[in-house]
Every structure is written in C-alpha cells, then in structure tokens.
Amino acid sequence: MSTMAAATTSQLSCFSAMNCQLHLLRRALLCPTTAHPKSLSLVIMSLEGGSKTKTNLSYTSDASKAKSDPILDDELVAQPKRAAKIHDFCFGIPFGGIVLGSGLTGFIFSRNPATLSSGVLFGGALLALSTFSLKIWRQGKSSLPFILGQATLAAVLLWNNFQTYALTKKVFPTGCYAAISAAMLCFYSYVVLSGGNPPPKKLRPSASAASL
User: Fold this and answer.
1) Helical (H) or strand (E) element with 53
2) Is the separation of the CB atoms in 188 and 151 below 8 Å?
C-alpha cells in the first residue's frame, strides 16, 4: 500500500509541475512583459539578429544590382582605343620636304627634268597628304586614308630608288633615298597596324572618367 501511495504521489507531482510549466508558457504568450528577463533578452537578440540578417541580405542584393548595372558595366569594359605612339605627319612632312628638296637639288646639278618632275610630284604629294592628315587629326577624325596614301608613295619611291641603285651602284644619293623610303614605309606600316594616330588631348577621356 505504501508503495502505491508513493507512486501516486510522484505522478501527481509530475502532473503539477507540467501544469505549472504550461501555465507559465501561457502567461508568457499572453503577457510578454511578465516573462522572464532572460527569455526576453533571447527574443530581443533573435529579433536583432533577424534585422541584421535582413540588412545584410538587402545590402547584398543592392550590391549585386549595382554590379549588374549596364551603365557601370559599359564604363568598366570601355578601354582606350589602340593607337600609335607618334603621328604620321611628324615624319611625313619632313619626308615630303626631303623628297621635294632632293628633286630641286638634283635638277640644279644634273639639269635633268625627270629628276625635277619626280621630286616635285612625289614630294608635293607627300607634303599635301601629311598636311591634310594633320588637319583631319585636329578635327578628331580618322586620317587613315592619308596615311595609306603616304605609304603607297613611299613604296613607289623605294622601288624606283632601288632600281636606280641596282643599275648605278651609287650609295649617294640613290642608296640613301632608298634607305629613307624603306624606313618611312616601315613607319607608315607601324602606324596603320597600331590603329592610326593617337587622338588629340582634348578628345582623350580624363583619368577620372576612366576610373569610374
């Protein structure tokens, strides 16, 4: 009998404890202000953690949107245009002057009209193409046709002087003219393959715009 009474007493104590816990839980749900401070602090910490998580998620989403902005992508992808380090007219104008002067000088000493006509024709054409290239470059436009024209004239001069040198075997002036024409042909080829003349300074993008 004593054993049954002890078992009954333990069961009643367990039921009462469970009832007390349920009552406290109901009070905490109905009246949050009467809850235990530790439980409230845990709830507050969980709420703060949730807000921080939401803030981090919103920041991440905003950052991803900013990264996927097409305007920013275009600015980052945009790169300066390829161009040569030196302009064609920097050497083209002196080269045309040399060819024109050599034609006049050769006519004075040799009295050969062919030398005068060749010097005036090729030298004048080179000077004209170089001058037009300079004017077009100042306007910010492409001067590629004028560069190709100068390259063609340099190739013709190289062929003519090389043929004359092969017949006469004279280093000066024919050999020198052939060497100068070959050097200028290489220079014009470099300018064309590099993308043309570099743009004027007023048309180049500023460093601040490029850094964006």
Assistant:
1) helix 37-67
2) yes
